[in-house]
Design goal:
Blueprint (H helix, E strand, L loop, with lengths): L5 E6 L3 H12 L4 E4 L6 H6 L1 H20 L13 H25 L3 E3 L3 E5 L2 E4 L4 E9 L3 E3 L14 H4 L8 E5 L3 H12 L3 E6 L10 H13 L3 E4 L3 E7 L2 E6 L4 E4 L1 E4 L3 E3 L6 H4 L23 E3 L10 H16 L13 E3 L5 E5 L2 H7 L2 E9 L2 H6 L5 E8 L5 E7 L3 H13 L4 H6 L19 E4 L6
Parallel strand pairs: 1-2, 1-6, 2-3, 6-16, 8-9, 8-14, 9-10
Antiparallel strand pairs: 4-5, 5-6, 7-15, 11-12, 12-13, 17-18, 18-21, 19-20, 19-22, 20-21
Helix pairs in contact: 1-4, 1-9, 3-4, 3-6
The structure holds flavin-adenine dinucleotide (FAD).
Length: 462
């Protein structure tokens, strides 16, 4: 008789857990995976995928407006929010089914239940059943954070609820300056809502390149979104169907919805971590792991958002795959968390890879900055008041491209390809040697000849 019921018990059927379970099963492991809500996790059910569907839907508004410059006369268009939500739900249900089927096809067993740790080798399901496992993988993801309790917090929605609103709010207040807040701000604005973004810091998109931050802000403001920085929502009142958000600067705003997108916390609560001896990383509140995603307990691993390292779907997938290959595939592999491309699906879109200018200048003694802002060809005909930003950061000593930042249509698609070059340590000379593809916006990346600024200092950290 086997010593354990299963070789691997995966807690969480999101991006990371599903990949780990499937790959471990393909390596011959007996796998059980528990999911308490819906298979596919945040990305599929209430994250990247429904978000992108909403982004695409809201972008139609701009296409309709831009059409006139190209000779189209389009009768007044109408938009039906419930149709969008219903179609999105249908697509998400389809994907959820595929996720379940794929896990089952791999030979792993899916249990639709919450699972918590009983000890280092035992998991307890919601119905009281216990399962013993040689290895346990915690892939429970993260959840929206509402910050400090303010009066009226019960009236505030998060991104979870924003995907299921019964009607499109005519006016919405969104607190937060990160990518989720801005993406929803642009989604609602695209559908015609009056949007106000409230952010406590001095500018949106903390952590992104400064030029990106200011460019996105001014482009969003041009599209009619109000962005108030340096203040917070201190109280929310409800009168009938209307909400009043009271701000720290003494002003107040009326709206039909109030949404907070001010960060996410790892799902570590009530998981039985203490019983099993799994330690938390005091620096970020996630499960503490080493380079192999191993926790403080020899046979327990954790991947994805619950470790609060880099909270992105492809990263959770990589970590899940690497764990399964290492533990069950006799192929030890660690995930390289450097130079991960990232996007913000705001309007306009952001794509970034590598160092920001501030990071590059802090680490390298000689940094050349190549920057261009220009009117995209489409805007010349549509008349839309918009500009695209492209920025390359180059190590002046080695000519290596350290970072690439783009704001504008298809920025994310462009940066996914540029990321290959940056990851391969391509030099500016490599970029210059590449013939431009004309007429595209991306050709600017290989035609920026002269640095717009050059930063040289005597003592360098690297
Ligand atoms: C609005 C939004 C937009 C996003 N957009 C993007 C994007 O454009 N690109 C990108 O790369 N990333 C995006 N993300 C982030 C991305 O969704 C996450 O990084 C990714 O889903 C993390 O995967 P995971 O496997 O760690 O966790 P999750 O996908 O969150 O999966 C965890 C699963 O565990 C389940 N679970 C939790 N506790 C238990 C338990 N005790 N027992 C059983 N099951 C449990 C949960 O129900 C969940 O299904 C977005 C996130 C949000 C919220």
């Amino acid at each position: 008789m086997a010593e354990f019921d299963v070789d691997l018990f995966v807690i969480g059927g999101g991006s990371g857990g599903v990949r780990a379970g499937r790959v471990a099963a393909s390596h011959g492991a007996r796998v059980m995976l528990a999911e308490e809500y819906r298979m596919g996790g945040t990305c599929v059910i209430r994250g990247c995928v429904p978000k992108k569907l909403f982004v695409l839907g809201s972008h139609v508004q701009q296409e309709l407006e831009d059409a006139a410059g190209f000779g189209w006369t389009i009768p007044a268009a109408t938009f039906d929010w419930p149709t969008l939500v219903a179609n999105k739900d249908k697509e998400i249900a389809r994907l959820e089914g595929i996720y379940t089927t794929n896990v089952e096809k791999s030979g792993a067993e899916v249990v639709k239940s919450r699972a918590v740790l009983e000890d280092a080798h035992t998991v307890c399901l919601a119905n009281g059943r216990t399962v013993s496992a040689k290895y346990i993988l915690i892939a429970t993801g993260s959840a929206p954070n509402h910050g400090t309790e303010i009066p009226g917090i019960e009236h505030v929605i998060s991104s979870n609820e924003a995907f299921h609103l019964p009607e499109l709010p005519k006016r919405i207040v969104i607190q937060g300056g990160g990518y989720i807040a801005l993406e929803f701000a642009c989604i609602f604005a695209g559908f015609g809502s009056d949007v106000t973004v409230i952010y406590r810091g001095d500018n949106i998109l903390r952590g992104f390149d400064e030029d990106v931050r200011s460019h996105v802000r001014s482009e969003m403001e041009k599209e009619g979104i109000t962005i108030l920085t340096g203040c917070t929502v201190t109280k929310v009142d409800k009168h009938g169907k209307e909400f009043t958000s009271h701000l720290s600067d003494g002003s107040s705003l009326a709206s039909d919805q109030v949404m907070f997108a001010i960060g996410r916390h790892p799902n570590v609560a009530n998981l039985g971590l203490e019983k099993a001896g799994v330690a938390i990383n005091p620096k970020n509140g996630g499960i503490a792991v080493d380079g192999w995603s191993k926790t403080s307990v020899e046979n327990i691993y954790a991947i994805g958002d619950v470790t609060h390292r880099v909270n992105l779907t492809p990263v959770a997938i990589r970590e899940g795959h690497a764990f399964a290959d290492t533990v069950f595939g006799k192929r030890p592999v660690q995930v390289d968390h450097a130079t991960i491309p990232t996007a913000v699906f705001s309007q306009p879109e952001v794509g970034s890879v590598g160092l920001t200018e501030a990071e590059a200048r802090a680490r390298f003694s000689h940094v050349d900055v190549y920057k261009a802002t220009f009117r995209p060809i489409k805007a010349t005909m549509s008349g839309r008041d918009t500009r695209m930003l492209m920025k390359l950061l180059v190590d002046g000593a080695t000519d290596r491209v350290l970072g690439c930042h783009i704001v504008g249509d298809t920025a994310a698609e462009i940066v996914q390809a540029v990321a290959i070059a940056v990851k391969m340590n391509a030099t500016k000379a490599d970029f210059d040697a590449t013939v431009a593809l004309h007429p595209t916006a991306a050709e600017e990346l290989v035609t920026m000849r002269t640095p717009t600024s050059r930063h040289i200092r005597e003592a360098a950290a690297e």
